[in-house]
């Protein structure tokens, strides 16, 4: 099994971006450590882009691989991108939607999602631990 973690715009800045919301741990470092921690149980690949088309291209590329499981944090694009939602519906690999912050406790514009309804499930508000929980769920399936 390969677990792909796909992060959208501005998630490369987690660690220095609005630390009161997203914490001060770098997401790159955190996900790198998860890769090491889980290396005997699964292969973890991380992809980040600030560009909607690049995220869709990547999901199309990996999304028909029978061994692929996908964790997506689309960042702000989750709230705006019908294209990403359609892409997740189009591919065959299961997707878990993750948000670091609790989007339902924030501004109302964060409460609409094109990604969540296309995903198997969602984790929101559990900080960076949300990624670990999604990995563990896939490993138990
Ligand atoms: C986010 C929540 C989004 O509303 C925001 O635009 C992000 C990060 C999160 O992980 O909490 O960029 O997806």
Topology:
Blueprint: E1 2-7, H1 19-22, H2 27-37, E2 43-48, H3 52-62, E3 68-73, H4 77-80, H5 82-90, E4 95-99, E5 121-124, H6 129-140
Parallel strand pairs: 1-2, 1-3, 3-4, 4-5
Helix pairs in contact: 3-5
Bound molecules: 1,3,4-trihydroxy-5-OXO-cyclohexanecarboxylic acid (DQA).
The site of 1,3,4-trihydroxy-5-OXO-cyclohexanecarboxylic acid has 10 residues, from loops.
Report on this structure.
It is a single chain. With 141 residues, the chain is an alpha/beta fold. It contains six helices and five strands. α3 runs parallel beside α5 (82-90). It is globular and about 35 Å long. It binds 1,3,4-trihydroxy-5-OXO-cyclohexanecarboxylic acid (DQA).
Key words describing this protein structure:
single chain, 141 residues, alpha/beta, Rossmann fold, 5-stranded parallel beta sheet, 19% strand, globular, binds 1,3,4-trihydroxy-5-OXO-cyclohexanecarboxylic acid
Largest sheet: 5 strands, parallel
The second-level CATH architecture is 3-Layer(aba) Sandwich
Q: What percentage of residues falls in helices of 4 or more residues?
A: 25-40%
CATH homologous superfamily name?
A: Dehydroquinase, class II
Gyration radius, in Å: 14 Å
Number of contiguous helices: 6
What general outline do the C-alpha atoms trace? globular
What's this entry about, in short?
The protein is of the alpha/beta class. Helix content is 36%, strand content 19%. The protein starts with a strand and ends with a helix.
């Amino acid at each position: 099994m390969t677990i792909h973690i796909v992060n959208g715009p501005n998630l490369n800045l987690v660690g220095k971006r609005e630390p009161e919301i997203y914490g001060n741990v770098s997401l790159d470092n955190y996900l790198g450590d998860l890769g090491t921690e889980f290396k005997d149980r699964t292969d973890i690949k991380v992809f980040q882009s600030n560009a909607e088309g690049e995220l869709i291209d990547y999901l199309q590329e990996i999304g028909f691989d029978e061994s692929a499981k996908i964790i997506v944090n689309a960042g702000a694009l989750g709230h705006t991108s019908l294209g990403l939602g359609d892409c997740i519906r189009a591919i065959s690999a299961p997707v878990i939607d993750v948000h670091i912050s609790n989007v339902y406790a924030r501004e109302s514009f964060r409460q609409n999602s094109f990604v969540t309804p296309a995903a198997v499930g969602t984790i929101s508000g559990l900080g960076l631990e949300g990624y670990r929980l999604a990995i563990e769920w896939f490993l138990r399936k």
